Amino acid sequence: MSATAETTRPDWCEPQEWAARVQLAATYRVFHQLGWTELIFNHITLRVPGPHKHFLINPFGLTYDEIKASNLVKIDLDGKILSPGDYPINPAGFVIHSAIHANVEDAHCVMHTHTTAGLAVACMEDGLASTNFYSAQLHGLVAYHDFEGITVHDDEKPRLLKSMGDKRLLILRNHGLLAHGVSLAHAFALLWTLNRACEIQVVTDSMRGHALSIDPAITARATRDALQFSPAHGAGDNILAALIRRVDRQDPSYKE
């Protein structure tokens, strides 16, 4: 943790939790810069270090460029708010994220977006196509979950988990994209690759002719070679760190 971040830590927050808050707030600002926003909706959640399955979520009512380390909301798996603050949480975000945090031991971070390209591909019957450089790196990593309406009902949790299985990426049909990872950077690298694949697919599908399919043997090898997904090779740490440096140059208020 930087000296600046440590000096802004409030008395009610332990150093490890504060470090997590700063990193998560920075990532919300990265999403804002990338345009991965949906007014005050969608979520990135992060497990709080420690023995309990508590996690941090964005306060419902703030845009991503308003999120700071201090206004993130800590909740338990039942949705009980455990930190001081003036904002509630979004029930729709809690249902999806709590299901994964509760049942996937190494899902320390969960990200969910409604980007235009991601949602467009989620609306297509065939889903993601193995036709471009980025989708070729996602061989066997993507699952699908059928749309059941707005995700505010607890009874959807087991079905969502069954749909996801052991996959890190989930396309919520007619809805959007989801990724979970062992860290913020790991989840980000996965989600960025999936979203980029969707962007290319949307443009490709708008052109004349037929897209070239990539042989499954090639996509399997490309996925093995995509080291940004491997915790042993940083799992996207250098990617996210570079984007956070850009946030720092423009507006470091997320550290407050």
TrEMBL record:
GO terms for molecular function: actin filament binding. SUPFAM superfamilies: AraD/HMP-PK domain-like. Residues 22-202 form the Class II aldolase/adducin N-terminal domain. It holds the Pfam family Aldolase_II. It comes from the Bacteria. One of its GO terms (cellular component) is cytoskeleton. NCBIfam families: PRK07044.1. Belongs to the aldolase class II family. This is Ribulose-5-phosphate 4-epimerase/fuculose-1-phosphate aldolase. The lineage of its organism: Bacteria, Pseudomonadati, Pseudomonadota, Betaproteobacteria, Burkholderiales.
